[in-house]
Amino acid sequence: MIELRRVTKCYGDATVVRAVSLSVAKGELLVLLGGSGSGKTTTLKMINRLIEPTSGEVEIDGESTAAVDGYVLRRKIGYVFQKIGLFPHMSVAENVAAPLVLAGWERGRIDARVTEMLEMVDLLPAVGARFPHELSGGQQQRVGFARALAAEPRLMLLDEPFGALDPVTRDRLQQSFVDLRLRLGLTAIFVTHDIVEALLIADRIAVMREGLLVQIGTPGELLGSPADEYVERLLEMPRRQARRVAGLMDGAG
């Protein structure tokens, strides 16, 4: 469904993404994993043209994204990010309805869709009358998901959507997202620097370092055959944590 061919981004003399090529199949969840400055967020934003590539090509369903106006392209792609970006002066219902208004839906259809989307992300319809500042962080993130899904996108891009949440809320929303994606058959690209998160939710993981794609494979493939020392170091942390937790559980038993 998605194809990147030697996609590169330069700012002056600095190259932040270097000839990245990868593909994402329909219904697949690909995680872009890497530390700060690895180029993962820039790569994500070049897919929906929030950032224009310096060179290379991005295709969605065989069509070059360069052939479509950026605002038209973005209306077809759900986008969720860490800071959520809800409009503070709008109610929750108005936030979820925003992409539908832009798409020209009629009022009755919008209202029904807003109710449907709030229920889909486990929020009561009554929450629609509240404003973002009246919600918890987890509730705000759910509203962000509802808004991103409202216009029925086939593709979702997610930029560290759970990074600012407490561990319990984060785990709950991770599971909700995985269940929702599978139920709707969404294709998704998910950016994170959290190795454990990547291993738990991804169909495949693309590891990036200093703008380069270092390795791409299933979680099992990366754990079993890391491509280099950098990938090995990334994966050593969850292995070490798993051993420590197993030891603590054995001791508690």
Note the beta-strand portion.
15-25%
Radius of gyration: 19 Å
User: Average pLDDT value?
Assistant: 91
Helix content: 40-55%
> Termini separation (Å)?
48 Å
Instruction: Please mark out the parts with pLDDT under 50 across 5 or more consecutive residues, or reply none.
Output: none
Helices and strands, in order, run as EEEHEEHEHHHEHEHEEHH
SS-based class: alpha/beta
How many strands, what sense, and barrel or not for the largest sheet? 6 strands, mixed
Number of helices: 9
The strand line-up of the biggest sheet is 6-7-8-3-9-10
Beta-strand segment tally: 10
Rough outline: globular
Structure in a nutshell:
By secondary structure, the chain is of the alpha/beta class. It has helices at 40-47, 70-75, 92-102, 107-120, 137-150, 167-184, 195-201, 219-224, 229-252, and strands spanning 2-11, 14-24, 29-33, 55-60, 63-64, 77-81, 155-159, 187-192, 204-209, 212-217.
Essential attributes:
253 residues, alpha/beta, six-stranded mixed beta sheet, four-stranded antiparallel beta sheet, 9 helices, 10 strands, 25% strand, globular
What can you tell me about this protein's structure?
- The chain has 253 residues and is an alpha/beta fold.
- It has helices at residues 40-47, 70-75, 92-102, 107-120, 137-150, 167-184, 195-201, 219-224, 229-252; strands at 2-11, 14-24, 29-33, 55-60, 63-64, 77-81, 155-159, 187-192, 204-209, 212-217.
- The protein has a 6-stranded mixed sheet with strand order 6-7-8-3-9-10, sandwiched between helices. A 4-stranded antiparallel sheet has the order 2-1-4-5, covered by helices on one side.
- The model has no long low-confidence stretch (mean pLDDT 91).
